Automatic annotation (TrEMBL):
This is UDP-N-acetylglucosamine 2-epimerase. GO terms for biological process: UDP-N-acetylglucosamine metabolic process. InterPro entries: UDP-GlcNAc_Epase (IPR020004), UDP_GlcNAc_Epimerase_2_dom (IPR003331), WecB-like (IPR029767). It comes from Methanococcus maripaludis (strain C5 / ATCC BAA-1333). It comes from the Archaea. SUPFAM superfamilies: UDP-Glycosyltransferase/glycogen phosphorylase.
Length: 371
């Protein structure tokens, strides 16, 4: 038996929660169940990051890499089977899940069926794509709910969740920024060959499963805009959702066309935050542009509907999948001095740090039957 089983399938979930998990490990027995992208060399074999942090890792190889909507569902089916076997073996007192990926819902389903309490962080947020339904379903099956902001708290209340089971902890992704636990500018400049006299874009783009047939056209418009802008750009591979393979192929193709576009399968959490700190603006549809980037007071050109409905602040410039409109939005982000000046007083609505401490306090109380 262990105290806590944390289930994760992607680089984002673990990296966001790693500070909390490392601190919690000082007090309880934690096992990490890693699946999905973590075990894929194509996505950087990020299970090694978890192992390097000193955790005992149970591996469930379940990524059905078909780049299709059906492939996502088949992956989820394999996760249910494989993770259930591991949970039955570990017999944890508590299951802990983060966010809106398939593995989070799988963990909540398993906990509900095996009568193991489930703690879910990230419920109550709103977005487009299949993520929104996965997130809401996870909230329904979970027992305790840790949210990043007051708006998400209210959304869970509207879903009928008991207010005594919802706790506003803030977003743990902000903790490392407040603590300055990221790669310094000189390190990033040298490692990624960045020219300090030029602007820099950070591009992260994931598929919206509700627009699956349009993903190739969408990423082409973005990359054509970047080519014409002629601004040095660093991009990281998309996730494993349907359409992700198409995005990654296009990223590789355009990086061969232009020396200004550099593409990486995986970038460590410290370096990614360091790039956020250094970049002139972030472009794409990643939630990191909404949640973490405001703490660096940097602009985010948010393209399309993937983050529709999610809490946003004034660093966000909304645009669509039109090359000309994307170029206009990037120009505003980089060259509009009034817009940039307005960001100097920006406060991040997702918290001010110490989220990991609040999360762990709640988990310890649950384990000690104090809730």
């Amino acid at each position: 038996m262990c105290d806590v089983a944390f289930i994760t399938e992607s680089r984002s979930e673990y990296s966001l929660m790693s500070k909390a998990l490392i601190e919690l490990k000082k007090y309880v027995d934690i096992k990490i169940i890693a699946t999905g992208m973590h075990l894929s060399p194509h996505f950087g074999n990020t299970v090694s990051d978890i192992e390097n942090d000193g955790f005992d890792v149970e591996k469930v190889d379940a990524l059905f890499d078909s780049n299709s909507l059906g492939g996502m569902l088949k992956t989820m089916g394999m996760e249910i089977y494989g993770i259930t076997q591991v949970v039955e073996k570990l017999n944890p007192k508590l299951i802990f899940v983060e966010g809106d990926r398939c593995a989070a819902l799988v963990g909540a389903l398993i906990g509900a069926h095996l009568n193991i309490p489930v703690v879910h962080h990230g419920g109550g947020d709103v977005s487009d794509s299949i993520d929104n339904k996965l997130r809401n379903a996870t909230s329904i099956f979970a027992n305790y709910h840790l949210v990043g902001n007051l708006e998400s708290y209210i959304n869970l209340l509207k879903m009928g969740i008991d207010k005594n089971k919802i706790f506003v902890t803030g977003e743990p992704g902000i903790d490392d920024i407040i603590l300055e636990n990221y790669s310094k500018k000189d390190t990033i400049i040298e490692k990624y060959g960045i020219k300090t006299d030029e602007n820099l874009l950070l591009l992260i783009f994931h598929p919206n499963t509700n627009e699956n047939e349009e993903v190739k056209t969408q990423i082409k418009e973005i990359l054509d805009a970047i080519l014409e802008l002629n601004i040095p750009t660093i991009s990281v591979y998309s996730n494993s959702d349907a359409g992700g393979t198409e995005i990654n192929k296009m990223l590789d193709e355009y990086s061969k066309k232009s020396k200004n576009i550099s593409v990486y399968a995986h970038i460590s959490r410290k370096d990614f935050l360091g790039l956020m700190n250094l970049c002139s603006a972030m472009v794409g549809n990643s939630s990191s542009g909404l949640v973490e980037l405001p703490s660096f007071k940097k602009p985010f050109v948010n393209i399309g509907n993937r983050q529709k409905g999610r809490l946003k602040t004034k660093n966000v410039i909304e645009t669509n999948f039109d090359k000309t409109e994307i170029k206009k939005a990037v120009h505003k982000a980089i060259y509009d001095e009034n817009f940039k000046k307005d960001l100097n007083n920006l406060e991040n609505p997702y918290g001010k740090g110490k989220s990991y401490s609040k999360i762990n306090e709640i988990i310890l109380k649950i384990l000690n039957n104090e809730m």
